[in-house]
Amino acid sequence: MSRTIVPVSLLYSTTGAYGALGREAVDGAMTAIAQINSNADNAFQIEPVIADPGGNAERYANFAETAVRQQGCRHIIGSITSWSRKEILPVVERHGALLWYAFPYEGYEASDSVIYLGACPNQHLLPLFAHVLNRFGRRPFIVGSNYIWGWEISRIAREITEVAGGEVVSERFVPLGATDLDHLIDEIRHKKPDFILSNLVGQSAMAFLQAYDGLRREDPDFAPEVRPVVACNLCETDLIDLSETAKAGHIATSVYFDGLETQENAAFKAQIAKRYGAERCLTTPFVSAYTAVCVLADCLADAGTDAPEAIRTMVTTRAFETPIGSLRIDPKTHHAALRPHIGVSTASGAYHVFQQARDAVDADPYLLRSHHRETLFPSSTPSSILSRPPRSFTVIK
């Protein structure tokens, strides 16, 4: 039986400042495509159309335009940074295509031309700060890559901190890919914040963690149990090339960690081990891109077409079983309900998950329901609320 060929664009930077994240994402997407194409019951076959913008945001629009207009792609799975997503967005809107975006981002966006499978602030930053503000203090130092992700997460973090009665001691931004960060370490040494929120990406995130480890080893007052680095976008990929001491003690929130103890993850890891071996560490970029491909494939099978309007209807009207749990997409915002987890990194580069939401949290991309809730951060009696985890979270001993 002949099968319909469905070209799908995989648009990730596999070289450049955050190329390691892109390579993980492409591996995940290609793993899903191989599994889908090997299933003889499918009436279609996905043909990956791979392009590497090299971390140059301005190239994303050109590659997206080529994929849609010349290569027949009606679906683009890709982009990591919000800068690159913003470059792709006008292309898919103009041509009636769909972008499948599966990375954590800063929110404040919704488009009929995007399926948002990554976490937004009420699914990453709010639970993270609910944990760290009470346990470490309310004087964060914020550092980020100098583009929309860094700016917006810093802004929201500052507002949360102030509502909780705290104060941001400093906000600093560096160019995307910057690795000369000694000036940040010097300022942190001088100001002694309660914790550091890192909104750095790729090589910058790795360079900062290695530099901060030097300070930690010189002065125990900066030990991870005293002044940790916390983040909404750190994953195992960011720790691979660091020394053992630099890998350990960082607190991160994510919808996926390799060490997640769920039935879905156990089954997924056993499945992936058949292809890569049991030693392969699975990361958020890998799993997110894998999930995007699988959800699209399920919609293709149900709709019998790759027409974006049909897929858009299908993806917002049913649930999908994925490695991160049962997934539903809100028909109004096109954002996924996701289950946040909080973990701390170890010297091996793995994350120990110590707190997680009991259920998936509905996305609130504009923070209309979540951001200024007095039940979470009441300015009058913050300690009474922040002294315990949010009611929807389970603490793992």
From TrEMBL:
Family matches, as CDD domains: PBP1_AmiC (cd06357)
Gene3D superfamilies hit by this protein: 3.40.50.2300
InterPro entries: AmiC_PBP1 (IPR039570), Peripla_BP_I (IPR028082)
Coiled coil (UniProt feature): none
Top-level taxon in the UniProt lineage: Bacteria
One of the Pfam families matching this protein, by short name: Peripla_BP_5
Protein name as annotated: Amidase
Species whose genome carries this gene: Rhizobium oryziradicis
